[in-house]
Amino acid sequence: MKLLSKKVKCNAHGQDSSYFLGWQEYEKNPYNEVRNPRGIIQMGLAENQLSFDLLESWLAQNPDAVGFKKNGESILKELALHQDYRGLPAFKNALAEFMEEIRGNKVRLKSENLVLTAGATSANETLMFCLADPGNAFLLPTPYYPGFDRDLKWRTEIQIVPIQCNSSNGFRITGSALEEAYKEAERRNLKVKGVLVTNPSNPLGITLSLHELNLLVNFIEAKGIHLISDEIYSGLVFNSPDFVSVMEVLMNKNYMNTQIWNQIHIVYSLSKDLGIPGFRVGAIYSNDKEVVSAATKMSSFGLVSSQTQYLLSAMLSDKKFTKTYVSENRKRLKHRQEMLIRGLRNAGIRCLESNAGLFCWVDMRHLLSSNTFEAEMEIWKKIIYEVGLNISPGSSCHCAEPGWFRVCFANMSEETLNCAMQRIKVFVNSECKTNVNGSNRNQFWNKNSRRKSLANWVFGQSFHDYKYER
Ligand SMILES: Cc1ncc(COP(=O)(O)O)c(C=O)c1O
User: Does the reported pTM lie above 0.90?
Assistant: First the structure.
């Protein structure tokens, strides 16, 4: 370790946050309906597994695209040899049109303003390198995606200053919260280079309102800073209000030839909308030619492979397919979100009203033994080790209020989701009983006999090989 760089030794990566720890615990004991029915159910992973049948059926009908052929002739050599680091023009055109379609064809996107990256992870980091210097700050509304600590800060040495949002107004961004964050950065002697939002929000599962978008545009205009809008969930809006991209707001305001037009940058990826995070396909869209040029050079560190671009250019150019996929996928997501809300409601748990994404923002404040983050961790540990659900605590998303959790619903089968809901219901009942009986929570959870009975309630059978002792 002594011989390694400071970067390797510093822990700004955030790998030790409960968000990643939960994944590690899940991997030690993953749930499987048949092989490990008492294992941990993964509800901390924002994966979209609901529409693979649609992708598979398209692949089956398009053997040329899958077999790297054009009009029956192999183009393997063309794809396997040199790749122009600016990306395949056919893919960039298809991606720009797909992004327009998701935005209700209300915005015109030029393929020359797109920079391809290995997922949104790489897009966000690349933008940090382009827009800010080490020690500069970006303002982010809380709660935010836990991966941002790694993606935005770790290698770039940029600081994140939170824009504190809270439950009193459904975690909406306000003018005063923006100003307060800016002042906080100034107090810390940090130069603010921009604001980064996710729209729709991870972890809230809500789209930004027009009011918030206008606030943001006015704020960055007044301060002369950048706005990054991470729109990775833009194709997953399944309830009204519809998704509005900040680009649409600028167009409606006729800002096309003004300075601010160059200060707004969009991050996108196919990881969520098409459910293919393993393919590593992301993009930056910017109207600023200098940003596009610098980001294109940097993209050499994280290109999208030629065969992936070739395959996806064929898929995304098939407009009939993309239309059906997007609308069917939205229907399936809506159904899942309703299942989760119903299941949690049966257990006496409420969620923030949401209209997008792969998760709900779940309110478990009533289950805390005190209004503290220690109590949040206490309940999180019970849920992961004893109930067997990996959910993400709000503290890992830098939420300012204890007791909120992000719960994913699209990375499992309906049966698994039902099983998770059953477990949570039993858990809440047992918690409530404990409260009614007035016994001390900590005492309760430290007593083996009570753990035994909880494990029995949860799994309806013997607890022997249920690994709650860790
Ligand atoms: C808001 C947000 N941005 C970026 C990412 C990273 O996505 P990718 O897999 O495309 O790198 C995620 C993944 O969960 C995310 O939620």
Answer: yes
